[in-house]
Protein 1
Amino acid sequence: MARVEIRGLRKEFEGTVAVENLDLEVRDKEFVVLLGPSGCGKTTTLRCIAGLEEADGGEIYIGDRLVNDLDPKERNIAMVFQSYALYPHMTVYGNMAFPLENARLSEREIVDRVNRTAKLLQIEALLGRKPAQLSGGQRQRVALGRAIVREPTVFLMDEPLSNLDAQLRVVMRAELKKLQKDLGVTTIYVTHDQVEAMTMADRVALLNKGLLQQFDPPRIMYDRPANRFCASFIGSPPINLISCDVRDGGTLDAGDFRIPVPEHLSECVQRTSAQEVILGVRPQDLSVSAGAGTDADGVVLYRFPSSSVPAEIYTTEPLGDSTILDLKVGDKLLKALVGASFEGDAGTKVIVRFPPERVHLFDRSSGLVIR
Ligand SMILES: Nc1ncnc2c1ncn2[C@@H]1O[C@H](COP(=O)(O)OP(=O)(O)OP(=O)(O)O)[C@@H](O)[C@H]1O
Ligand SMILES: [Mg+2]
């Protein structure tokens, strides 16, 4: 069993706190992605687990063993880095056999394992080549192969796909996910790419400034962000965030528009007595329909559904399969994602509805979700 458990991990570099009080439990066979912006402590966390960096505080368990004082090679982990770090003078075969020779496996076992792994990764035809004779994607596979042959209990991967072009990344991302499930090896994978995290992970651990913000399956990260940072880091185009004041416990007043506090949140809003909030709504969740009737003074001429406000299209950004609308509501700009068949150009008057069940509220001072 290869559960990885981190309790209260802390790592500091000359006064810079890279990781602060991190708790993380990765289940056996699980694929966990460490996600976050540059400098948030992802690599440092991984290097502490690998034993390449000494933790300043906290405990790291691999399986049931406390590994803080174990050498990297005693931890039975294999690490794949962004730079593949292949040995340039060795063939693909030599690169893959090297860790096994170091571990003093028999010649027969080495040949067996290398061949089996090469077949799995479909690089059998490349075994005789040197790294310089390989494409980026092929080198990536060899680096993976070198990790897999060792049959470790845990894979640690630090942005292993980031040197590949966009198309190859998409292919490799699916392959790597499939491979991880087939091999059933507990994996901790670092990326700053939210799409990679969302598509590959069983659970995503989102870090910011060395602090864990949320640790949940992708769907929950998207649907139920724990705070304002999580809401804005995940999702594309990014979530709309609008400062609002709560009026009489029942209305969200954004200045340029007002909508009712969603019913399922009204009790929480009253309980927290937060008066200053941030309204969050994803572009995918806003619904846009044509034709708000307003007269020359901006007075709405007919009733429209509740939680809706009149808006004007500022620009459109067609993506082919869908279109991003930039909508002007008073002085505010909101993004909405609509179907490609949506008709309307800059200047068109529309009605924007905030579906109450898809509205998020965050406390403006703490950033924490209100729910
Ligand atoms: N060896 C080091 N010496 C000093 N500071 C370091 C060292 N390694 C990391 N840091 C600092 O620790 C913080 C976390 O760095 P880390 O490399 O873990 O970030 P990251 O999340 O992997 O970022 P990226 O996405 O850019 O790779 C940063 O502020 C970084 O400057
Ligand atoms: Mg890094």
Protein 2
Amino acid sequence: MSDSKNRTDPSRRAFLATAAVAASAAVVGLRPRTASAAGEKLPHLSESDPLAKSLGYVAHAAKVDRAKYPTFKPGDRCGVCRFFLGTPGQKSGYAGCQIYAGYSVNADGWCASFNARS
Ligand code: SF4
């Protein structure tokens, strides 16, 4: 088999494409467990983080400034927010949030981006 045939043979290209996909899947499957999808091991979001501050994030929903955020309702908290990456309904502990990439938020926290899970 000549080199030019190897470069143009459709079955060879299909094989290489399949092998590349399989190799990618293997790499994804071997990701360390510490890189949890829920993000609970990420640094905790600080209330003084500029984005957090602009959205009124508090680590405990009881501290929400109700005058500044009148849409807040008792029971609203990260654990029941659609952006929370932890277990739906999670009552305590930290997990990632789609709004604050690279940080974890308290399941008992809240911010103005709160959007209840349906
Ligand atoms: S977007 Fe939702 S999960 Fe993220 S900090 Fe705000 S209330 Fe919590």
